[in-house]
């Protein structure tokens, strides 16, 4: 980032913003002074101040003067660089007076992160949204913790039957009984050992899903839309967890009663809700990641907003709307009081706790998805094995497994062209069509790269691209990531899958002009 300054009056203050830095990031600033008619300009001292108040300056030029071969330098090493608004200025210039010049001020960033000229402008609506980010992070952690613990308990107990106990092997061991009902008798003992987890006797019914959550944003700001989507995904997750747990308990009840028909039906229900739960967790992971990025990019502003919110909370307590949201999330009166204490105890000068909470939440969802993936595979084995013939004693049989295939082709071409965009603008929606060339349905995953220029230098982050299998606005689509994400669990053969893509041209280097490219990698799993 470069400022070309015509005279020494322009040295007095310049701002720039650091975004996405980490402990490896380095900031290096130089002030180059150009001589006027061969006369050296004495005593320019470059000073740089970080958002955390660290100020560094270089006064070597007091003795050496300033010419083409010398500059005033400031270095912020690894661990000293923080996100937020920085100040750079020069002082002590005596030389030839205010009209001396010209100068050149350079600021370089090495490592993670990017620079923006000037301070970041935060619209008032975003400021209001930032004040309640802490509340909703705590709401999510509190509202889901019990459900996740309950679900994990049931997963482990259920896998004890389907995974560790290996249902397929169990059926083979009981093959001499020549009937599924007899095989189920051998599993009753396993089910009866499940403590504090009563099976349900209404296994002849399927769970009836209510309508999806439809919380609307209070305004059109990006953060407010993300907040509404975050809560919708959270509430849908709770509904799907309930459906999943209910189906597991009905499955267990059918097992104990030896009702093989309903064992199959409820195991299929478990499989269905695991798929829906996985899709919703992917959605929740994406929106959580977006909130995480927002916190990182606006850390300095949120520090101030959080302090304001704490003052309001201390004086007035939670609003009626916030109390309703907390109660809907399962909070008791005591839990709400404890949450208030927790928020007031947050360090108003540092949002690290909130950023780490969302980062840990994103990682936790990923680990949770992996557990669900293993469990889902076990359920699929169970559903398939319910239809495996059990041969009576004295017979032999041949066996072959015919496996299906899946593949991918782009019937209308594999190029997504967003046209020409100005910085920060959002492209029109672009369609990319795909076809499963195989014989069985597949799971379709996608990942991508950063946007690179002709010299393979990154100019935009990968997640500036958004996508979905349904048409919608940019914020309704999922951010593309460098790791595999599920695009759809139902990539069916011989049909065209429409996918919808948009790009917001937020540049790492705001002065960049030119062509950039991004690679998207698609994987089919069947």
% residues in beta strands: 15-25%
Strand and helix order = EEEEEHEEEEHHHHHHHHHHEEEEEEEEE
Mean pLDDT: 68
Global structural class: alpha+beta
Largest sheet: 5 strands, antiparallel
**pLDDT below 50 for ≥5 consecutive residues: which ranges?**
60-70, 92-99, 120-196, 367-372, 374-379, 381-393
Shape: globular
Number of helices: 11
- Rg from C-alpha positions? 30 Å
N-to-C terminal Cα separation, in Å?
49 Å
Major beta sheet, strand line-up: 5-4-7-2-9
Total number of β-strand segments?
Answer: 18
Instruction: Summarize the amount of helix as a percent range.
Output: 40-55%
Query: What is the number of independent domains?
Result: 3
Any chance you could write out the topology, listing elements then pairs?
Elements lengths: L1 E4 L8 E6 L6 E8 L11 E5 L5 E4 L2 H4 L6 E6 L7 E8 L11 E8 L3 E4 L6 H8 L1 H32 L2 H7 L6 H13 L29 H36 L2 H38 L1 H18 L3 H9 L4 H13 L6 H34 L44 E6 L6 E7 L2 E2 L5 E3 L4 E4 L9 E2 L5 E7 L4 E8 L16 E6 L1
Antiparallel strand pairs: 1-8, 2-7, 2-9, 3-6, 3-8, 4-5, 4-7, 10-17, 11-16, 11-18, 12-13, 14-15, 14-17
Helix pairs in contact: 2-6, 2-8, 3-6, 3-11, 5-6, 6-7, 7-11
């Amino acid at each position: 980032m470069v400022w070309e300054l015509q005279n020494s009056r322009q040295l007095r203050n310049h701002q720039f913003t650091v975004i996405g830095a980490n402990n490896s990031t380095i900031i290096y600033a130089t002030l180059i002074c150009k001589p006027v008619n061969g006369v050296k300009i004495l005593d320019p001292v470059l000073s740089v101040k970080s958002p955390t108040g660290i100020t560094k300056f270089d006064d070597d030029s007091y003795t050496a003067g300033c010419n083409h071969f010398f500059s005033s330098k400031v270095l912020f090493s690894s661990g000293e660089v923080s996100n937020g608004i920085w100040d750079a200025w020069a002082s002590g210039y005596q030389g030839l007076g205010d009209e001396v010049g010209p100068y050149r001020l350079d600021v370089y960033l090495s490592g993670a992160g990017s620079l923006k000229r000037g301070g970041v402008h935060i619209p008032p609506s975003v400021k209001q949204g930032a004040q309640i980010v802490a509340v909703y992070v705590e709401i999510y952690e509190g509202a889901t913790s019990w459900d996740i613990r309950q679900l994990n308990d049931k997963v482990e107990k259920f896998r004890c039957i389907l995974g560790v106990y290996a249902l397929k092997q169990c059926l083979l061991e009981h093959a001499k009984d020549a009937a599924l009902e007899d095989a189920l008798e051998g599993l009753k003992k396993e089910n009866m050992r499940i403590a504090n987890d009563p099976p349900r006797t209404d296994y002849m019914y399927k769970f009836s899903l209510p309508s999806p959550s439809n919380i609307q944003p209070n305004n059109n700001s990006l953060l407010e839309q993300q907040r509404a989507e975050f809560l919708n995904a959270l509430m849908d997750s709770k509904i799907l967890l309930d459906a999943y747990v209910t189906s597991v308990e009905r499955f267990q009840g059918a097992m104990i009663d030896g009702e093989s028909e309903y064992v199959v039906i409820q195991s299929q229900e478990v499989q269905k809700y695991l798929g829906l739960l996985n899709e919703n967790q992917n959605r929740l992971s994406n929106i959580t990641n977006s909130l995480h990025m927002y916190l990182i990019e606006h850390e300095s502003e949120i520090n101030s907003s959080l302090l304001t919110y704490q003052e309001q909370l201390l004086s007035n307590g939670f609003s009626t709307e916030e109390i309703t949201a907390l109660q809907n999330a399962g909070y008791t009166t005591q839990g709400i009081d404890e949450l208030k204490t927790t928020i007031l105890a947050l360090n108003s000068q540092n949002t690290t706790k909130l950023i780490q909470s969302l980062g840990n939440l994103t990682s936790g969802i990923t680990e949770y998805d992996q557990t669900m993936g293993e469990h889902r595979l076990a359920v699929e084995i169970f559903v398939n094995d319910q239809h495996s013939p059990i041969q009576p004693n004295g017979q032999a049989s041949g066996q072959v497994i015919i496996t299906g295939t899946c593949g991918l082709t782009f019937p209308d071409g594999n190029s997504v062209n967003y046209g020409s965009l100005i910085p920060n603008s959002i492209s029109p929606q672009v369609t990319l069509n795909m076809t499963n060339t195989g014989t069985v349905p597949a799971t379709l995953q996608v990942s991508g790269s950063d946007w690179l220029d002709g010299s393979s230098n990154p100019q935009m982050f990968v997640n500036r691209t958004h996508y979905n299998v349904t048409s919608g606005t940019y914020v309704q689509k999922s951010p593309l990531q460098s790791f595999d994400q599920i695009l759809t669990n139902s990539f069916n053969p011989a049909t065209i899958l429409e996918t919808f893509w948009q790009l917001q041209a937020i540049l790492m280097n705001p002065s960049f002009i030119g062509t950039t490219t991004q690679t998207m990698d698609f994987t089919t799993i069947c």
